[in-house]
Amino acid sequence: MTGIFTADAENRGLVLDPRTKLAVMITLVVFALGNTGSDIAAVRYATIALCALPMVLLFTAKKYKKSAAAGLIYGLMKAAEILLVPKASGAVLSLIGVCCLVFVRLLPGLIMGAYMLSATTVSEFIAAMHRMHVPVQITIPMSVMFRFFPTVLEEFSAINTAMKMREIRIGGRNSGKFIEYRLVPLMVCSVNIGGELSAAALTRGLGTKVKRTNICKIGFHIQDAAVLVLTAAPYVLWILGLTGVVK
Amino acid sequence: MKGKDLVNIGIFSAIYFVIVFIVAMMGTIPIFLPMLAVIVPILGGIPFMLFLTRVNKFGMIWIMSVIMGALMLLTGMSWQPLVVSVVTGLLAELVYKSGNYKSAAKAVLTNGVFSLWIGGNYLPLFFAAEKYWASRQNFGQDYIDAVNKLMPTWMCPVLFAAAFICGVIGGLLGRKLMKKHFVKAGIA
């Protein structure tokens, strides 16, 4: 969570355009989660290749442990779906079946989300949104939000420590106040910090009507082309499958 | 809408999303997955009610709702939540607007309507189910029955209804806490 859009810009390996990442994400959502064209064998194989892409990308971003863990979990789930499910029966079947149904489909997208958040800087993200002509009414709140996440978490852990000292925790003497005594101070301090942030935003020209500039350079390179070709593959195969060229 | 309003949207979206994120962590255990529609609206109601005291222009609730949907797309929960959140956000906005951005009762109702976007997260799991079965006929009827028993289609509207009802409960809870703390502290 602390890793949201706080990428180390110098030391993150392969740099992709944020729009490429978004394209991969949307394709994953359509094919892995949405099961589009899963009645065509070629699309199924392309989807599996596509599902491996987020793990590879995480690996290039030097998140070796995360990448390996994600690959292992996805591999086990997919194997369970193919090997175990046809043989199981009864309660075991229900349990494995639901786990597979949920995780095999959700996991690739979630891993891609983890990659996107950990390998993109806020500036890049905002620059990409700007290029895609997303209105400022959306981009400004979003950039404030991403700036604000680490602060919220920091405050929350400090409040958490203080409340633990007062025995206000799950299983403690005052567990009934658990939520109230955390959320209320968190909001009071957030509101105060928010006032300061508003002032800071004004000095950055967020309140004016002029067009804002961004020094962050984004653009498509060879690595983007490679990823985009892989991303386009399932769509092409799907269309070919619908017209009956491949099965 | 001025810069300050946009900053406010950002701050409250951050608090709201932290709650969503922490609860969603529990959702990785499949049994807790439906509980998202219950816990998030109740806990989220607390910051949302405080947010509503700062809403006085058309579009603020809508933008927050769209941002929630966009975040779901960014974190890999499919595009359906975004579509749902665009619609429910506008509805929530209209509900609160009908009370001139002041009515307390409308504010509680607004949290209920706003919370409907959480139901959108479940849509991909129900939506493409038939396609999913079509490509897995060889698993047998046993499998299909077993999974359908745990995830029946009627669960879908139930989850939306749960989100709405818990949103109203969360709104009432938020109001109670606001009277108790924030009004006294002078920030509501």
What is the structure about, briefly put?
The complex is a heterodimer of chains A (247) and B (188). Chain A has 247 residues and is mostly helical. Helices cover 69% and strands 0% of the residues of chain A.
Keywords:
heterodimer, A: 247 residues, mainly alpha, 69% helix, B: Arp2/3 complex 21 kDa subunit ARPC3, 10 helices
Mind explaining what this structure looks like?
The complex is a heterodimer of chains A (about 250) and B (about 190). Chain A is mostly helical and about 250 residues long. Chain A contains eight helices and no strands. The two termini of chain A are about 40 Å apart. The mean pLDDT of chain A is about 80. By secondary structure, chain B is mostly helical. Chain B has a single domain (about 5-185), classed as Arp2/3 complex 21 kDa subunit ARPC3, CATH 1.10.1760. Chain B has helices spanning about 5-25, 35-50, 60-75, 80-100, 105-115, 115-120, 125, 130-135, 140-150, 155-185. In chain B, α1 (about 5-25) packs across α3 (about 60-75) and α2 (about 35-50) packs parallel to α10 (about 155-185). Chain B is elongated. The mean pLDDT of chain B is about 85. Chains A and B meet through α1, α4, α6 and α7 of A and α1, α2, α3, α7 and α8 of B.
